[in-house]
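>> received
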Amino acid sequence: MGYELLVTVILVVHFGYLAFVVVGGFLAWRWPRVFWVHLAAAAWGLAVVGIPLTCPLTVAEDWARRR
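>> returned
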């Protein structure tokens, strides 16, 4: 039961991160202080897609699912 909850939490955080990468630009438009956080998140997202990097959230999710 404990690992199922962990997988769910990691999955929600992962989805939240991806949602922030997609719509964070609109949030940064409304709240300019969010711009730098969104820029870093978008740069990491672009690096994971463009360069063969592995997302740490995916690694954690896979680990927790195997348990």
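>> The longest helix spans residues 2-30.
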